[in-house]
Design brief:
This protein is an all-alpha fold. It contains two helices and no strands.
Length: 67
């Protein structure tokens, strides 16, 4: 079995590094959500019949959902 590399004892990053990584994660997530919304809008424009069916299906799910 090969030797595993030694890991540093303190695996928790500094507060500033963690805050920066959280900010970076939030930026990446926001960009991903924008691109996802854009892709959905494009799909709805390209396939209007499928988009209408999806809207009707979603409306039916929301009507039958119990709060």
């Amino acid at each position: 079995m090969p030797d595993l590399p030694d890991l540093p004892d303190d695996e928790s990053p500094d507060a500033a590094t963690r805050a920066e990584s959280d900010a970076e994660r939030r930026r990446r997530r926001a960009r991903f959500l924008r691109e996802l919304t854009e892709a959905r809008e494009l799909r709805d424009r390209v396939q209007p019949r499928r988009a209408k069916t999806a809207r009707l299906r979603h409306a039916m799910r929301m009507r039958t959902f119990r709060w």
